[in-house]
């Protein structure tokens, strides 16, 4: 894959924090399903939701309702526990994205530790693959983690962009790390996604990495929708992504 043939770039919208707001009052409003449907109508290529072990935002019934209601693919984020794997098997999403989870964290910190845990993870996650659910692993941007993910049968790797977004001083070197990792993913034939912490200011350089096929964005879009509405926020994000890809194509001509 060269810059002359960048792949199509999809936007997955993570609607977890609609549930965070709903849960603050314990009622039914705002509804994550309604947000997912609005996101789909506004051009989201997929919906992502994370069922955390502590159920701090998305609940079991949200996941089932979203899967039943949307027409675009569902990316179900989960920790590699037997409870969550059983949930994913019952919901049957398009993809299961395995993330590390610590109870005390505010959000998903760092990528999944795959190296050294290959055989345990392969055994635990095999039922997802056997059920026809694509296996995605949320990992740090380095070759060894990508190779370990591939060795246990990952169909997709999602690169953690949190450090790129939040460590402004280290951003340039982090971008190079993400570019190299995405290139390596293409070389070894695994689909490459990226996400975490992306906003209007950080999305363009990540969208310009030609071998990344999907960005998953949540917190910023839901926050921004307070000011301009979810459809508007999604449209602006998509425009930035598409502009970055168009510029890449123009550079290659
Ligand atoms: N990708 C993964 C694997 C995540 O865990 C998250 C956060 O739930 C995101 C993407 C989206 O991150 P953010 O909400 O910061 O956009």
Secondary-structure blueprint:
Blueprint: E1 10-14, H1 16-25, H2 32-41, E2 46-50, H3 60-69, E3 74-78, H4 82-91, E4 95-98, H5 118-130, E5 134-139, H6 143-151, E6 156-160, H7 162-166, H8 171-188, E7 191-195, H9 203-207, E8 212-217, H10 219-228, H11 230-252
Parallel strand pairs: 1-2, 1-8, 2-3, 3-4, 4-5, 5-6, 6-7, 7-8
Helix pairs in contact: 2-3, 4-5, 6-8, 10-11
User: Could you say what the CATH topology is called?
Assistant: TIM Barrel
- Measured as a percent range, the helix fraction is 40-55%
Number of helices: 11
What structural category do the secondary elements indicate? alpha/beta
Query: Whole-number radius of gyration?
Result: 17 Å
Q: Give the total of domains.
A: 1
- As laid out across the biggest beta sheet, the strand order is 1-2-3-4-5-6-7-8
Run of helices and strands? EHHEHEHEHEHEHHEHEHH
How much beta, percentage-wise? 15-25%
Strand tally: 8
Q: Give a short account of the largest sheet.
A: 8 strands, parallel, barrel
Distance between the termini: 15 Å
Bound molecules: pyridoxine-5'-phosphate
Task: Note poorly predicted spans.
Answer: none
CATH class: Alpha Beta
In CATH, the architecture is Alpha-Beta Barrel
Per CATH, the superfamily is Aldolase class I
Q: What number is the mean pLDDT?
A: 94
Write down the overall geometry: globular
């Amino acid at each position: 894959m060269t810059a002359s043939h960048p792949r199509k770039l999809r936007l997955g919208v993570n609607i977890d924090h609609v549930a965070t707001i709903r849960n603050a009052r314990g009622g039914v409003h705002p509804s994550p399903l309604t947000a997912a449907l609005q996101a789909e109508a506004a051009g989201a290529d997929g919906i992502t939701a994370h069922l955390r072990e502590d159920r701090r935002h998305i609940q079991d019934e949200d996941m089932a309702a979203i899967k039943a209601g949307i027409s675009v693919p569902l990316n179900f984020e989960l920790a590699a526990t037997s409870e969550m794997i059983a949930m994913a098997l019952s919901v049957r999403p398009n993809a299961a994205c395995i993330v590390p989870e610590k109870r005390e964290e505010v959000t998903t910190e760092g990528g999944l530790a795959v190296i050294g845990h290959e055989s345990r993870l392969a055994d635990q996650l095999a039922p997802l693959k056997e059920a026809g659910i694509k296996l995605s692993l949320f990992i740090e941007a380095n070759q060894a983690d990508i190779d370990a993910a591939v060795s246990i049968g990952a169909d997709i790797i999602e690169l953690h962009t949190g450090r790129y977004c939040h460590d402004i001083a280290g951003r340039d070197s982090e971008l190079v790390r993400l570019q190299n990792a995405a290139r390596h993913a293409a070389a070894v034939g695994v689909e490459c996604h990226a996400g975490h912490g992306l906003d209007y200011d950080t999305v363009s350089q990540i969208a310009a990495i030609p071998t990344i096929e999907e960005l998953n964005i949540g917190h910023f879009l839901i926050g921004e929708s307070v000011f301009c509405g979810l459809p508007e926020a999604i449209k602006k994000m998509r425009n930035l992504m598409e502009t970055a890809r168009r510029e890449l194509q123009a550079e290659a001509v």
